[in-house]
Amino acid sequence: MNRESQATSTIRRILVVDNNPLIVKMLERFLTDEGFEVKSAADGLAALQVLDEYTPDLIFVDLIMPNISGEKLCRVIRATDSLRGVRLVVLSAVVAEENVDFQAFGADACIAKGPFAELKENIRAVLAMLVQQPEQAAREIIGRENLLQRGVTRELLDIRRYFDAILQSMSDGVVQLSRQRRIVFVNRAVTEMIGWPEEKILSSNLLDHLSAAAATLLEAALVDREREIATTGKVAAPCVIGEEEEVLLGGRQVLLTLLPLVERQDSSCWLVMQDITERKRAAALQQRYQQQLEEEIERQTAELAQRYRELQSEVERRKQTEAALQASHDELEARVAARTAEVEKLYSQLLHSEKLRAVGKLAASIAHEFNNPICGIRNVLQGLQRRQTLAAGDHDLVAMAVRECDRVARLTSDLQSFNRPTSSQLVMLDVHAALKDILLLCQKDLENGKVEVRQELAPDLPPVRAVPDQLKQVFLNLLTNAREAIGPTGGRIVIATRREDDEVMISFCDSGCGIAAENLERIYEPFFSTKPAVKGTGLGLAVSYGIVQRHGGRLEVESREGQGACFKLFLPLPKQ
């Protein structure tokens, strides 16, 4: 580094924006030697793209550049919140011919481009000023006094101002686009259409401001234009978009004209935007009035025709109404007859249920009457065992008679418990003990029916919280259904228990006739039964299903007709 600048204490990163590659290269080398980190851009649009990812402390800006001039670039930077602390210094040769008010567009200083040795000294002076007096901007253009005015440059600047004034006064919008579809120039009409200030519009993508369909059409037109330029070097005619299609820009409907202007293959393109919102609105209004008139004529014609058809069809509608009433009457009679038959069936089932209830009470009464003599007989036999000396054979016979008395006593006790009203008290119940009681009660019936009962009981099965007589009722219903499904030829019933996670499973699987598929969804309905009326009420499974649900469990069935059925009862284990 040739000279250590005092500005390096607060200014480290610098961006150079100039379309002259020689000036850019010389400034990059000089500023790098001065100890700065330097990046460059060839025009205003390229500079904004650099600033999307890089924030310098200071920017040197040329005024006359393609794709967003230096003045507009300064306005855009000053309007960007994240870049408001960046210092702006204008480097331009046109200050010899034009008095540039650099402070009006936000620049902190302006240096005239002259001999490079003087330019370097002027840059060092501005950097020192910006560090020593950061709140104070330069008032005069530095280095201007040593430049000579150029007549051609003044004339070109006058022409440029003239054309800019014309473009800004036009009622139609004018837009200049880069090859990347970035906006590098807009006139005042475009800012009013979009509703944004020029600083916010510049460098944005024009396609983002259009409706999706319009953006697609414009992109296709631009691609065709670029292809035509690459092939022929020119564009034959303007391309108009929006006459047939709806093109929306900032809520306004516009007509886009892509001008056939070509300077070089990689140059930008120009579009003219005509606001046709009011014209389209007037045309739409006229079309709507015309359509309303045609619809009114058509409506009145149709109304007359409809009235005529209504008069002709009145008699036919009355005939149809009478036929519908007759059909409804017939249907009502059929439904009354079906309902009557259903009530009679329910009444018959109710009578049968009452008979079963009476039989249950009678069985309990008989059991009570049997219990007293059985107890007496048992006491006598036990007395004989204690007081009399019996032969070995007689002693075995008496012991067997005592056991039979105990079995009859248990049977009578079970009959009484089934007829006794439920206590509804939940207690810890041994499932295996309850199954044993039910099997003892049904043992004789199972033996007479040639039914083999196989028990697959899990060891150490935990108890469940249940109402004992209700759960026994479920076991009895399932065992009875399995026995009746097997038929007179005999078969097998497998009773299994096991623990599954937080549940106890008890299954009753038989080798009987099974359940038809169409009946599986109805087996839990009250009074539904496939048995003859003298053998079943259709209440067993319905009652069992309700008991299981009240215990927080579930009842599942697996069956195929002719292949037996398997009912699985799941009961939750009590929480610790």
UniProtKB/TrEMBL annotation:
Annotated ranges, domain PAS: 159-207
Keyword Transferase assigned: yes
Organism: Desulfurivibrio alkaliphilus (strain DSM 19089 / UNIQEM U267 / AHT2)
UniProt-recorded name of the protein: histidine kinase
Gene3D superfamilies attached to this UniProt entry: 1.10.287.130, 3.40.50.2300, Histidine kinase-like ATPase, C-terminal domain (3.30.565.10), PAS domain (3.30.450.20)
GO biological process: regulation of DNA-templated transcription
Pfam families: HATPase_c, HisKA, PAS, Response_reg
InterPro entries in UniProt: CheY-like_superfamily (IPR011006), HATPase_C_sf (IPR036890), HATPase_dom (IPR003594), His_kinase_dom (IPR005467), HisK_dim/P_dom (IPR003661), HisK_dim/P_sf (IPR036097), PAS (IPR000014), PAS-like_dom_sf (IPR035965)
